TrEMBL record:
Keywords: Ligase. PANTHER family: AMP-BINDING DOMAIN-CONTAINING PROTEIN-RELATED (PTHR24096:SF149), LONG-CHAIN-FATTY-ACID--COA LIGASE (PTHR24096). This is Fatty-acid--CoA ligase. It holds the Pfam family AMP-binding. It comes from the Bacteria. It comes from Rhodococcus erythropolis (Arthrobacter picolinophilus). GO terms for molecular function: CoA-ligase activity.
Length: 556
């Protein structure tokens, strides 16, 4: 592996004994007047962001939130998401970011699971939070942030974030790195979400690994603040320069990728331009306007950018790194992106919520490039093994098996799920459940999944709960949900069904009813996009549905 390791980068880092509050403290100390956040016409410098966050932290303390308590963030991307996020972290609370599109039943289940004491919500989704709170005993403190929506302005039972924020900032408190930073909600093989316990030390480690890899800098803890220092010989022409440049945050902040990426940018003093809906032409205009240096996203986003009407109208020369994850980026797209962004390195990475987020990344060093199709090498202090699915024996280079990982970013297990934790977090190793292989240089290639997981625009969609909803239709006898290839979304959920013999003359109506019913019960990304009616589903002798045959029938 020595011949492929990026020049100048250390294989091991020092991880200061601190919480994630030190990331924001360092940015405010090093870049006090630099723009931290831009959200439409609203912006905050790093000193303003930290001041606001510490006032929210003090307000949470005054309302009884203690270190270790959970705080829910139920809102779309906005400046106030970040203020509430850092406010909760600085108070020592565990942040539970929640998809604002969740229906009432799932939102209640998730908030109950993490035992959230306070929930920050947004006018666009506050009605759901209010409905859930009416079902909760005792009711939670609901905090409304500014924004457009049905619940804008004063609302009975809600406290505004400006009223919550104290007249004085929280002082003389440093977060214990063993406290939980994120209760990151993720799906399981059954689709039932569970909360991953990401400790502050896990989050700090993953942010420092990312910063080292992408900027060629290490960190030093000085009076409670993480400050970056250059690593001799590690800088390349693609390195992100601390205190310069910007990124655009389109990835949902309620997702682990969005939060880890934000902390990485904060550590390096970059400006984050926030967005909620992805518009390719506006995105490209913002890249030009804000001289964006780092772009992170999914293949779906990059494919849309390459088709944008204004692609050739903007100066994209400021971009140094294009990072891609969630699903493989095809080699043709990689080559095209290299031409469109002339000064950027296109890199793919791999990670999951159970590893805070990042495990591997493509090389930042053009003298030692990552092979096309690979998600790169493990971060410093990170080990990757490929093991046999049955025996768990470690496999040789070139052999496909299950991916296991170990490192300081591996989370502390699942919240309130000791049996699930014991089955996936084993002896310091994380059993990812994903399949892959490594070449002789140690580069990782993702080679399929050992679960029937569907990835829609980077979101995990689990078939089992959708199959149960489909089968609740009175005319459906059997159902299987699989992912159909889609150029824009990566995969879309589709259902194959067998219907009652007396209903075969109205299959189109049944298909419509199924899609409409499922859409009312799930988040938008989980919707069934098409329904195919078969006489029977292909199955093994033991009755297991051959989903691979169904997927093969959908191949273009």
């Amino acid at each position: 592996m020595s011949s492929s390791w990026p020049l100048g980068l250390p294989r091991s880092l020092e991880y200061p004994d601190c919480g994630a509050d030190a990331i924001l403290a360092g940015a405010a100390r090093s870049y006090p007047d630099r723009l931290a956040l831009v959200d439409g016409d609203t912006s905050l410098t790093y000193s303003q962001l930290r001041d606001q966050a510490l006032r929210v932290a003090q307000g949470l303390r005054e309302r009884g939130v203690q270190p270790g308590d959970a705080v829910g963030l139920h809102m779309p991307n906005s400046i106030w998401f970040i203020v509430a996020y850092y406010g909760a972290l600085c108070a020592g609370a565990a942040v539970a970011p929640i998809n604002p599109a969740q229906p009432v039943a799932e939102l209640k289940r998730q908030l109950d699971d993490v035992d959230a004491k306070v929930v920050f919500t947004h006018p666009s989704c506050a009605a759901t939070a209010i409905e859930v709170n009416a079902l909760s005993t005792p009711p939670r403190i609901l905090v409304l942030v500014p924004g457009a929506g049905a619940q804008s302005g004063h609302c009975e039972g809600l406290t505004s974030i400006t009223d919550l924020a104290s007249s004085k900032p929280l002082a003389d408190y440093r977060v214990d790195p063993e406290l939980v930073a994120h209760l990151q909600l993720t799906g399981g093989t059954t689709g039932k979400s569970k909360a991953v316990r990401v400790l502050h030390r896990n989050l700090v480690a993953n942010v420092l690994q990312s910063a080292c890899w992408r900027s060629g800098h290490r960190t030093e803890l000085v009076d409670g603040a993480l400050l970056v220092r250059p690593i001799d010989g590690a800088l390349t022409r693609y390195s992100i320069v601390p205190g310069e440049g910007a990124s655009i945050s389109i990835a949902p902040l309620f997702h682990g990728l969005g939060l880890v990426s934000h902390n990485f940018t904060t550590l390096l003093g970059g400006t984050v331009v926030l967005g909620t809906r992805f518009d390719p032409d506006r995105f490209l205009a913002d890249v030009d306007r804000y001289r964006v240096t780092y772009i992170g996203g999914s293949p779906t986003m990059y494919y849309a950018l390459l088709r944008a009407r204004t692609l050739r109208e903007h100066d994209l020369g400021s971009v140094r790194i294009l990072g891609s994850g969630a699903a493989p980026l095809d080699t043709t797209a990689i080559r095209t992106l290299r031409g469109v962004f002339p000064n950027a390195l296109v890199t793919e990475g791999y990670g999951l919520s159970e590893a805070t987020m990042g495990l591997t990344m493509g090389s930042p060093c053009e003298e030692r490039p990552t092979p096309l199709g690979s998600v790169g090498l493990p971060f410093p202090d990170t080990e990757i093994q490929i093991r046999d699915e049955v025996t768990e024996a470690v496999l040789a280079a070139g052999e496909t098996g299950q991916i296991w990982a170990r490192g300081p970013q591996i989370a502390d297990g699942y919240h309130n799920e000791p049996e699930l934790s014991a089955g996936q977090f084993i002896g310091g190793w994380l059993h990812t459940g994903d399949m892959g292989w490594r070449d002789e240089q140690g580069n990782l290639f993702i080679g399929g999944r050992s679960k029937d997981l569907i990835i829609y625009k980077g979101y995990n969609v689990y078939p089992q709960p959708l199959e149960e909803l489909v089968c609740s239709h009175p005319d459906v006898l059997q159902a299987a949900v699989v992912g159909a290839p889609d150029q824009l979304a990566g995969e879309i959920p589709v259902a194959f069904v067998v219907v009652d013999s007396e209903s075969v003359d109205r299959v189109e109506q049944i298909a419509t009813e199924i899609m409409e019913h499922v859409a009312t019960q799930v988040a938008p990304y989980q919707k069934i996009r098409d329904v195919y009616v078969l006489d029977e589903l292909p199955s093994t002798q033991t009755g297991k549905i051959r989903k691979n045959e169904l997927r093969d029938s959908l191949a273009p």
